[in-house]
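Ticket #4471: complex job returned nothing on first submit. Input attached below:
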Amino acid sequence: MHGIAWSCPRASFGILLIVLRMSRLLSKTILILAGAVLTGSLVARSQNPAQGLAQNSASPSRSGLNIVVLDPAHGGTDPGARGTGGIRESDIVLDLAAQLKRNLESQGFQVMQTRTTNENPSFDDRSALANAQTGAIFLTLHVSSTGLAGTVRAYTMPDMPIAQASGGLIPWDQAQVAYLPLSRKLGDAIQGELTQRFKGSPANVQTAFIRQLRTTAAPAIAIEISSVSMQDKANLDRMLPGVADAVVRGVVAFRPSYVTPAVPGVPPRARP
Amino acid sequence: MNSKWRVRILIGLLAAVLAAAIYFPILKQRVKKQARVQQTTEEQARRELVQSLNANSNEPKVKAKLFWASDSEDGTLAPTIVELPLSNDPVLRAKQVLNTLLAGPVDAELHTLPSDAALLAFYILPDGTAIADFSEAMANSIPSGVQSEQLAVDSITKTLEANVPQVRRLKILIHGQEVETLAGHLDLTEAFPVNGKAVALFVPQKTAPTSNATPTNAPAASGAVVPQKK
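Support reply: We reran it on our side without changes. The output follows.
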């Protein structure tokens, strides 16, 4: 075990989410203490309702969506997609992240980045940063090798096999399952904005089995710009402010529909 | 005397370190070279084994549906009907359609997989999980990106779904190894869904002890699972 990252409880539910990071991928497990739900209800009973309400209204900013985790893909020894004109995916996404950060912060979001320099954290570390937050969404940023130049696509994970939530535990590699409906909503909101601005982009969010989305316990999407095959980097650079603006509009539009799933990690469809 | 010896020992150690420093890179290079040679010969042998499967074609030609990229540049697939002499054995049949898929369409622009990639091995487990092992070119030569990698995987899973009804899920290996992603994006740690309504390949193991009483089940079951060497 490398360490324990734990997030603060959702104020209204009193649910404690502990992310235990164990040695390797399959042995990694998200432990959601169902017991905490029990304690939460006990606490609620022992308090009088007025007190509970007062507590909630005292910290309105702590509930709901207020953190955006940006994941500029690749980095370090991994440049990602490379164009014949010398464009490297890992550089472009870092620029995009910087612009997104500025725009998101001006909308009152707290922004965290999986990397801010030319380094390459593991896929699990990227997911773990989002999993350790409460009220966060996860955006992983990419530039493709293919596709119609000048278009942008948003992706979510496709339907995943339903997590075996035994005793309130869900496997690390199924962390995304419970958040898929929210991820789709976020993806559609952002894709709508992108398509308005970048003609030729698809109308709806696409699906793909993207590695760092699978292990993220938060609404999570990938954004991919086409493409590194452009001969002039300036053309791609010129797209970035528009992409950043459209994505932030999408996030702002999505914000009211953000909810923490009632019991984290246990998908509503799990019970037959 | 004491210091003289110390100097001698120091010189001796220094010489040893220097010799090691010079020899180590040479040794490393040799090991690397050896490994490379071994890998390519092994891969060649496997490739030949798989390709020879396609050569013996006494089977009647059937219409196989293969999925390559569509004309539009939007990352979608389009089915193409190809007449192929396909075997009735699911493993053999899967190898045949996948090799045809790898060989690519007439229009090279519509390729979904790298043209230098090869299928090294293919198995179907009793639960309908197929395992396809591709050569390293599959991961190294594919254009990196969510769209291009998803298109590659989709073309494989859709082609299997259309032609080999026994495959329920597909797990992709690269040169016999489990890898985290195809080329930096697509997750290969889990199996991809292929056909949720896959035909049952196999009589459940629980009936195995009484297999003598029901001899009709046994040959069909073993024939379907064990990859044939012919």
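The beta strands of chain B are 61-69, 77-85, 119-124, 129-134, 169-174, 192-193. Closing as resolved unless it happens again.
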